[in-house]
């Protein structure tokens, strides 16, 4: 039977209305590149490979993101960064930091100048004072400085959070981790918003820290002063790019804590300029998930 003109128009409208929408959704997906560092510790610690795979799994429901994982260190082919909106570097840092070695510092700086977001996790927030520290402050607002910052194992009580998209849905929590503090931030904390803050007990300031054991006089001098320290922060760059530093992430099992996980997942959206849901990124992690993909036992 011949379709009436009205029916024909309605069918056409549906077709035309749907296709551009699908096309737009595809092109609007932001690419997030998760880089996992090489194994360096015993089982359960610095599980960068398992960590990024867990985070990627938790982000599967975020339609606005296309997540690409790079395991076992810096990508062999830098083409993986083509079109990236954000990068996570969850890896050992210091002199071997994946983003500063060889000619990478200039390459990554070029990406940052284009507005690509960057988040560094755990040891990944540390670079040598004279190689990459200036850039890290520009990229993510601050970095760990050897013998200025410290790295005790402790359990900060995160009780209140700033009015910031990364805080959405995050509830008070406390987990024991190697939470570094006393970062070397940008002058006057310009453009830097502390996200996770807590007051260390005097016994934490007294050490021992993980390495070097300390204690440092300048860390101890704040004892009894109720001085909050920053373990996670968000930074806006003058050109609109975004950066985040997160000093936890030593202990793999901590990904099982919902708020610990949520604050990181929210941050990954935020650096890519994806709107963080009102209650934050929802995810579920099982005991099996926490045991999955761990680096081979005893690998150093
Ligand atoms: Zn560690």
TrEMBL record:
InterPro entries the record matches: Class_I_gatase-like, ThuA-like
UniProt organism field: Limnoglobus roseus
Boundaries of every ThuA-like domain copy: 100-270
Entry superkingdom: Bacteria
Protein name (Swiss-Prot/TrEMBL): Thioesterase
